[in-house]
Specification:
Elements lengths: L2 H10 L4 H8 L3 E5 L4 E3 L7 E7 L1 E7 L5 E8 L2 E2 L3 H6 L6 E4 L3 E7 H10 L1 H27 L2 H11 L1 H6 L2 H8 L3 H9 L1
């Protein structure tokens, strides 16, 4: 199961076998059932998570009780609330499993210790931060500059599996629109 994570790491940073073994010795592997909350609002995200297989969602709940999905993660992706992980402050977000999932985790303590000990792990971390920044910046640009129809069409073109695998409620929350608006867009 951890070979997927090793491949992900080596795509971002060249890591020798000895260092990879040190990294992998800090990894815990577990299966998560659908609808399991991995991180709740108010908890500290003290683990770096990597989703090997399945689907997870990172979201907020507004004061009015509305869910606002920030991130949908499928196979082979990190799933961590970085602001909470970096600062060890309570998260304002939730992470939950939308499907039965295979998840890896590493404690924040081990993660940051390895940054000091393995230069290529530090490069990996920098690349993760760059990817996260670019993705979130593009999400914000889309939410601010595109109409609901344009956001839906872009999602349909670039990530059709979202429409196929996720409920309308989740897709609408991700797009920042109501379920009714999503239904109208789908029917056109």
């Amino acid at each position: 199961m951890t070979d997927i994570f090793k491949d992900f790491i080596t795509e971002l940073a060249e890591i020798n076998e000895q260092d990879m073994n040190r990294i992998m010795s800090c990894i815990s592997v577990y299966n998560v059932k659908r609808n399991t909350i991995i991180l709740a609002q108010g908890e500290v995200c003290d683990k770096f998570y990597f989703l090997e297989k399945g689907c997870m969602r990172t979201y907020y709940i507004t004061e009015e009780g509305q869910e606002k999905t920030r991130l949908i993660s499928f196979d082979n992706t990190p799933v961590t609330v970085l602001t909470s992980f970096i600062n060890l402050k309570p998260s304002v977000e939730y992470i939950d499993a939308l499907e039965d999932s295979e998840l890896l985790s590493m404690s924040q303590t081990d993660f940051f210790r390895l940054l000091d000990e393995i230069p290529s792990w530090a490069l990996f971390y920098r690349k993760i931060l760059e990817l996260a920044f670019a993705f979130q910046n593009n999400r914000i640009e889309d939410l601010v500059t595109l109409s609901a129809k344009e956001r839906y069409e872009k999602l349909l073109k670039e990530r059709p599996h979202y429409i196929q695998r996720l409920s309308n409620k989740i897709v609408a929350s991700y797009l920042g629109i109501s379920q009714e608006t999503l239904s109208r867009l789908k029917s056109k």
